Amino acid sequence: MKQLNPTNAMLNTRDYIIRVGTDLICSRGFNAFSFKDISREVGIANASIHYYFATKTDLGLAVVQAHIKELEKLKENNSERDPWTKLNAFFNIYCNAQADKRVCIAGTLLTDLPSIDTPIRDELNKLVTAIFAWLISILEEGRRKKVFYFSSAPRTKALMIITNLMAGLQISRISGVQDFELIKNTIIKELKG
Question: How far apart, in whole angstroms, are the C-alpha atoms of residue 43 and residue 60?
Fold first, then answer.
C-alpha cells in the first residue's frame, strides 16, 4: 500500500480522499473506480475509506459539493475584475482539466447521469446551474460594457460556450491539445467581434 502522497500532506485524509475521488471520476468516470482504487492511492485500508464515506454515493456527493465550493471561491476571487479576466478564470476550469488530460467533473458525471444516485444528481444540478449562472453574468457584463460582442441571448451564448468546451475536452483526448486550444481561441475571437 502507498503512503500518503507527500505533496498532499497538507490535506486531511477526508480531503485527500475527495481529491483522489475527483481525479478518478474525471479520468475514468464515476462507475469505473472503486474504494479499493482510492485506498491504494491514499495509502489506507479499504475499510478506512468507509469511515469517511459510507457509500460511493456519499463520496460522489462530497466531490460535487467540493466543486461547488471551489466555483464559489473562484467567483468571489474574481468578482471585482473586468469581464475578460473573469472569462479567463472561467476558461481555466476547462484548461486545467485539459492540461491534466481529463474531462471536467460536470462533463464526466453528466455522461454517467442515468446510473448515479439522486443525491449526486441533485448536487450536480446545483453545480451546473451555478456554472451557467456565472458564465451568463460574465457575458451580460461584457456585453453591457461593450467588450463582448454576440447577437444571441446570453444564456444561448453560454450554452454554446460550455458545450464547446466540454466537447473540446472529450475530443482533444484523442485529437490533441491543439483542438481544445482551437475551440477556446475561436470562442474568444467570436466574442471580440
Answer: 20
